[in-house]
Amino acid sequence: MEISNNAPIGVFDSGIGGLTVAREIMRNLPSEKIVYFGDTARVPYGGKSRQTVEKYARQIVRFLKTQGIKAIVIACNTATAFAIDAVREEAGLPVIGVIDPGAQVACKETENGRVGVIATRATISSGAYTDAIHAIRPDVRVIQKACPLLVPLVEEGLLHDPVTDEIIMRYLDEVLENGVDTLILGCTHYPLLRSAIRKLIGDDIRLVNPAYETARSLSGLLSREGLACTEPRNPDEPSPYRFFVSDQAEKFAEFANSILPIDVSAARLIQIEDY
Ligand code: DGL
Hints:
Layout: E1 9-13, H1 19-28, E2 34-38, H2 50-65, E3 71-74, H3 77-91, E4 95-97, H4 99-109, E5 114-119, H5 121-126, H6 128-136, E6 141-146, H7 150-155, H8 162-177, E7 182-185, H9 194-201, E8 206-208, H10 210-224, E9 241-245, H11 249-259, E10 268-269
Helix pairs in contact: 1-10, 2-3, 4-6, 4-10, 8-9
Bound molecules: D-glutamic acid.
């Protein structure tokens, strides 16, 4: 079947974190439509095995394909790290994850060849950022650190809090001791801690936000594939953004409204295990 340029992009994450990626797509590719799925029933993915995350990701792709999408953005570092190959196989559509775009920019930005990566345990254990960086620049030293407490702190809304600052510094001490000049925020929640991290580490270290870099790479991918949206936005049309979750739709909509530039009136609940 011919894919339409004006079809939506399927964006998925383990829960709410991928909204930081959706937000960048809305800002940087305003004519694109989005179908977002957050796996709020099974979040977090960051402590799960590759096998489990692959299974979840395949179910999500099967669901997104029922929505007539033209491409898929894996808006989750852990799902990208563990399941991008499975997603590609299942989707048969253009797929982009968040890891390569972040790694590419870090390789360009670093001057001293030392790059820090902070992420979930799963992403760190997969070595996906290190592999992506070394595929571009084998000379770069990658200093990785799993930061499992940061996701719950963000989800509790403690973005500017002494407890969060203390934990950020405990995690970052080791990374900073290694003299990194570039730090990848390798988890969907961490861009929301950007100003706290910046305040704690000063201005000399470049912070790479894979959410932003992914939106930019997506624009390139859609152009290359001849899939960029060509349709002018119709003001009478219902919202170009649709949201689906596997649990806690109201809590999701509340969080979405706090970070997105649009009004998310509701998210629809689906039974993802059925796909
Ligand atoms: N979205 C996940 C990531 O970027 C963080 C939350 C989770 O552990 O599921 O790795």
